[in-house]
## 1
Amino acid sequence: MEIQDIIRPENKVYSTPELLDNVHMHYCPGCSHGVIHKLLAEVIAEMGLTEKTVGISPVGCAVFAYNYIDVDWVEAAHGRAPAVATAISRLWPEDVVFTYQGDGDMSAIGTAESIHAANRGENIVMVFVNNAIYGMTGGQMAPTTLVGQKTATTPYGRRVDLNGHPLEITNLMAILDGTCYVTRQSVHTPANVRKTKAALKKAFQNALDKKGTSVVEVVATCNSGWKMSPEKANEWMAEHMFAKYPLGDLKNE
Amino acid sequence: MAKVKGAVTVNVERCKGCNLCVVACPTDTLSLQANEVNDRGYHYAYMANPDACIGCCSCAWVCPDACIEVYRVTAN
């Protein structure tokens, strides 16, 4: 059978999500953000929430998320995405509100907003992309940077006596009464991408059912910041990150 | 036994040549262009071994730029 006989519309089994705008994404080649954007676009379209979803984009690499997924967006000040999401979800209770935050936004400057929004049980979805480094500003140490990991500001590796311990903010969220679903996923293999999609779907369903705050952490790579090829970064993540940030559901009520 | 045949199309201008689809492909169908580049200078992915494709979508799932579309037929 010739290739042109296979490439026909009736044989299509995977297409680019319609909600993803046809613009060139500014992310580095191999960046996990692209996969997570794609999954969000798929989940929102499949659940029929295109006209009912409001995203809050963070400050960080994903600051331009509003250019890529064709739903309503608000760009929040650094770390304040959960506060903005709180307002929108209270004013428009019929809409599904999600925040898209990196490790700097969620676990450094925005710790207070994130923890308190989760503790209040705001009816929002928080997507937390944890790549253990500040990618946008040049690869500085983040609160989630692993002990011994080399970054621009810890050139000899993160030291516990000097820089403290890596912050597992998702585990903190799991013990709060306001959260209904807290999970940690990754997108480095096709199987993990599918699991992350299922987790996002569940989180959006929780928001529709008004069950409380859902937190989906995605352990991600930053191959530019880590100074590795995309392939090596995935291997490094599987080898080192999962020991500190094990995958799986932390809370599912 | 029915044989599954697949094929992929790559949005060449969107592709950034990150190689993740090549790594994810279980049948070694995909490869990066050795010399050809797109408008932005990336060595984009293409079906180097199209007969091997089984349309499993692994490449499309891991593609960060959503530039791969997959087609599959079951041939008798």
## 2
Amino acid sequence: MKKKKSDFRPNSLWTLPSAGLLLFLTVIPLIMLLVFSFMNRNLFAGQPWPGWTLKNITRMFHSAPYWKLMAKSLGIASIVTLICIAAAYPASWAIAKIVKPKNRSMFMMIVILPFFTSQLLLIYSMMNLIKTGGVLLTAMDAIGIHGMTTWLYTNKATVLILVYEYLPYMILCLYSSLEGIGDNIIQASLILGASKTKTFTNIVFPMSLPGLLSGILLVFVPVAGSFMEPGLVGGAGGSMVGSMIDTQYSTSLNMGYGAALSCALLIILSVIMALVRYFAARAERAIGGEPS
Amino acid sequence: MAGLRVNDLKKSFGDHEVLKGVSFEVESGKFLSLLGPSGCGKSTILRIICGLETADSGEVLVDETDITRVRPEKRNIGMVFQNYALFPSMNVAKNVGYGLKMQKVAQDEINRRVSEALEMVKLGGYETRRVRQLSGGEQQRVALARALVTRPNILLLDEPLSALDRKVRAEMQYEIRNLQRQIGTTTVFVTHDQEEALTMSDQIILLHDGNIEQQGDPHTIYSQPATIFASDFLGKANLLAGKLACEEGNWFLTDGKVKIRLNHVGGKEGDEIKAAVRGEYFEFCEEGAEGANPFRLEKKIFTGLAWRLIGRLGNQPMDISALGTAASELEEDRDYFVRIRPENVVYYNV
């Protein structure tokens, strides 16, 4: 039988563009990162073949600042993620369940509005807002709250900016999950004698887990590796692990060491994400009545 | 077991008055259907009884205890929703046992009662199945088990069968009714399907536009519709317009061409009336037989159980239904004669 040309049935060829992008933009760079970690010097510094070494790896394991910054970054990422979750649940709930359906897209638009400007611009506008003599402190002074000092150039400012930047991702993820929970399901829980709190923990929370997990992935990972925000608003003691990696590439020109640090961060983040998923699945099964 | 009484419920959404003062009573252990077209307020009544909606005025009493201001989770009412509303994150046993867990019943007891409830709805051994793996009918059984396992005072069913296909629906109608008789929970069933209401209920309340149109047992409601709306909604009766006439103590509806005998219940000679007559109450007869009226058969439609015979009685359109054997040799575009017993004619002044 002759095959028709205008055939829109699923065909493995359709995956080629995305597979190609994935290969060139993700797989190859990751392999390069791994390879660079074991290189002696900078491959692109115009020097002859540098040769293989384990120096970068051992140096990384013995670098106290690296692990200190790693711990700090993971801490900041956890705090930012938790704040985002706490702020996003009520917001997504309101948009998914309280706002009338015809107004929902408008509210979602407001949530993603910050994406329409460059990140850098957002950061600078926030800096303007919270700096000494900025809008926020001036206003507080005006209403009688004096003696406040600015958060700018402290770790608090980094957290604030990161929350500001990543909250929309969390709201989008949670919204998509919460919207799928039928009103009847919540009503059924109430009628069966569950209080609102119990309805949340037993019904809404497990049903929102898929969205929550993607939200955590989209917030925790980039925040843990961020370097621009701490550099701009974190001040002298603001560095995070991303800043240190950045320095290896931009200032020290030590590509091999930078690659080793990146690989370690990547592995640690992957392990954390895998653990989060594992425990979420366990919690879901426990609530759902399946052996964990 | 508990009786349910509802007093003068009123409810508006914005400008739209959904309930205009509805009162009724269900005796303990009885099965009541709230029947009506969509938008008649039947679901709103159910939601007010279970507390998901608050009435503007009026009260809900269970066994003469006013529960109008009680929160839904404290009412001990079971409810089955149209789309089942099972918890997708839980397996069957957890779904059914949810209400018991909220009542802090011991786990052993929960397990025992969940198994019992599942046996009752013929889903014994389904405890560990995931909800998504079940068919629509099975999901509805789980929902029913979940609503009944807490031994609620009142069971509310909000169009629970409308998402099921015909065959499963008929099975479930029979089973729900059986189960309800067996355990004797006072039940309020909401439906827009008159056949379902007639099959299942002890009592039917026909609602129209926020008011009770008629209330009674299925047979009375069907055979003696109190209003034109009732006659039309339940089984779609034919309406014949004409004048009331009296000859030698017998009363008739006449329009010049037809003369239908009826039992006089009010009105005087010459009054304009409308009579509701059900298509299945007609019988074919010879010309000149007592009560014979001319019927011109225009179209014959086979519906399975019966033939639908569309035509004119005198000048007025008429839909007669006749069983297959009686109607198979009738021909379209021919004149016949039909008659109907006076007790099967209900009329209204217009």
